[in-house]
Design a protein that fits this description.
The protein has about 120 residues and is an alpha+beta fold. The chain is built from 3 helices and 4 strands. Helices cover about 55% and strands about 20% of the residues. The longest helix has about 45 residues.
């Protein structure tokens, strides 16, 4: 191979590495963020179910279910998660059920995110 061909390709591996490592890092960060968002969502769902169980007991009120959900979220989720928890009773097909609702911010960059459900 001619010397001018070898000189044109020198440094190409470094450039390829830099470009691909940036792309792989971005994909890795996106996968981590999706995993974190799903973890927060599943944790909040499990705690809301536990709060609804507490509220559904015969000797408790819906307020106690909301308090239980808030305390669980504050102990397991970081930051401002679990600050808006509501609980009430509703009738579905003639059966009185307890409902616990948790409003969480959508984590966009780590635990930082926009308020919403």
């Amino acid at each position: 191979m001619a010397k001018w061909c070898q000189r044109r390709e020198s440094g190409a591996a470094v450039t390829d590495f830099v470009l691909l490592s940036g792309l792989v890092s971005l994909i890795f960060a996106a996968v981590l963020q999706v995993g974190y968002s799903l973890h927060i969502r599943n944790t909040a769902t499990a705690h809301a179910i536990e709060g609804a169980r507490v509220a559904a007991r015969a000797d408790t009120s819906p307020l106690e279910g909301a308090i239980r959900t808030e305390s669980l979220l504050r102990s397991t989720a970081p930051g401002r998660y679990g600050t808006e928890v509501t609980s009430d009773e509703t009738v579905i097909n003639g059966v009185v059920v307890s409902r616990v609702t948790v409003d969480l911010p959508l984590p966009v960059l780590g635990p930082l995110g926009f308020p919403g459900r």
